[in-house]
Amino acid sequence: xxxxxxxxxxxxxxxxxxxxxxxxxxxxxxxxxxxxxxxxxxxxxxxxxxxxxxxxxxxxxxxxxxxxxxxxxxxxxxxxxxxxxxxxxxxxxxxxxxxxxxxxxxxxxxxxxxxxxxxxxxxxxxxxxxxxxxxxxxxxxxxxxxxxxxxxxxxxxxxxxxxxxxxxxxxxxxxxxxxxxxxxxxxxxxxxxxxxxxxxxxxxxxxxxxxxxxxxxxxxxxxxxxxxxxxxxxxxxxxxxxxxxxxxxxxxxxxxxxxxxxxxxxxxxxxxxxxxxxxxxxxxxxxxxxxxxxxxxxxxxxxxxxxxxxxxxxxxxxxxxxxxxxxxxxxxxxxxxxxxxxxxxxxxxxxxxxxxx
DNA sequence: TCTGGGGTCCTAGGACCC
DNA sequence: TCTGGGGTCCTAGGACCC
Length: 357
Fold this sequence. Notes:
This protein has helices at 16-24, 53-56, 66-72, 83-98, 123-141, 153-160, 176-180, 193-201, 207-212, 215-222, 224-233, 263-283, 316-328, 350-356, and strands at 8-13, 33-36, 48-51, 77-79, 103-107, 111-115, 145-150, 168-170, 249-260, 286-297, 302-313, 337-345, 348-349. The chain has 357 residues and is an alpha+beta fold. It folds into 3 domains: 13-50 and 68-145, Reverse transcriptase/Diguanylate cyclase domain (Alpha-Beta Plaits, 2-Layer Sandwich); 181-240, DNA polymerase, domain 1; 249-348, Dna Ligase, domain 1 (2-Layer Sandwich), CATH 3.30.1490. The strands form 3 sheets. A 5-stranded mixed β-sheet has the order 5-6-1-7-8. Strands 9, 10, 11, 12 and 13 form a 5-stranded antiparallel β-sheet that branches. Strand 10 (286-297) and strand 11 form a beta hairpin. It is globular, with a radius of gyration of 23 Å. It binds a DNA duplex (18 and 18 nucleotides) through residues 16, 36-37, 45-50, 62-68, 81, 83, 107-111, 189-195, 223-225, 244, 247-255, 290, 292, 300, 302-308, 339, 341, 343.
C-alpha cells in the first residue's frame, strides 16, 4: 500500500520586522533600515533583530551586535523592535494563510507550514496556489514573502530559503536529493553553528557529503539528532504539519546597560520581571508549579536555577519570593551581573485547576 | 563578533517508587 | 545485605528556532 504523496508549502515573510516598518513609514523606502537594540552611537550592547536588503548591502545581518552594525552602516535608520505591531500584522497574515490549507502550523512570528495535499493533484497546481497566496498577502498587507513547495516540511523550508526575497521555489520529491546535495549543511533546520563546526571536523560541509556519510557514525556523534540529520540529507521527513499545542513556559529577561554589582538594583529588576511574567500568566489563565531564574555574569557565563513547588499557584507573591530565593546564591560580591531572567513553567489551565479544586 | 529576548526540545544524572 | 529493572519526575545545561 503506497501512501499518498504529500504536498507541503512553507511561507517565510521577507525581512518581516523592517518590511512592516517600511510599510508604516514610506519615508524609509530605499534607505537601509535596522530593527534591534539601541545602537547608542556604536556603544549599544544588543543585537540586530532584522534588517532590510539595503542594510544587508553594507554587510549588516540578523544576530549581529548592534555596535558592529553601526560601524558598517551608521547612516541606517535604527528602530526599536515593536513586537506588538508585528504580532498584529502576523495574525492577519496567518489568517489569510489558514484559508489555503486543511492542516496549518505557524512557526515563529513570520513563518508557516501548510499541508495542501487535499487541495491539489500535481506540482503545477501547487505552484499556482502558492502564487495565489503570495498575491493575496501582497494585495491585502503590502508585504512580500518567499515560498517553498515540496513533499515534506524540511524540503519546503529549504526551498523557501532558496530564492529571496519574493521567491517561489518548487522541489519535487524525485529532485529533492539532487537539489539539496550542493547546499551547505547549515541550510538544514536544526543544524546551527555548533553542529556545523562538528560536522566540519568530520569533513562534512555539504548536504550531499552528509547524505553519503555512515549513519551509525553520525548517531555515535550526535545521538538521535544524527539519525535525523542523515534522513534530512536524503530529503526524508515524515513529520506532520500540525497546529502547535499550548504554551509551555513564559519568561522575561533583562540585560543591564552596564554590568552591575549593585544587588539592590538586581533584586528590584527581578521583582519587575516577576511582575511582567505574572501579568502574562494571568492573561493566559494559567497556574504554574516551576520557577526558574537565569543569571549571566559579565564574562557571559550563564546559569539557571529552578524549583518545582509541591503545589500549583498563580500568585505573584509566590513567584517573587521563589525567584528571589533562587537568585540569592548567584549574588557574589566579586562577580558583576550582565543579565537576569525569570521563567515559569509546568502549567495547568484555570479550567483544569477548578475541576481539581 | 563582545554577543537580545522569547521560546522549544534534548540529554544525562539523580531521586524515588514499585 | 551489595544487588535489578522499569517508569516518572526533577534539575541544569546546551543547541536551536525566529
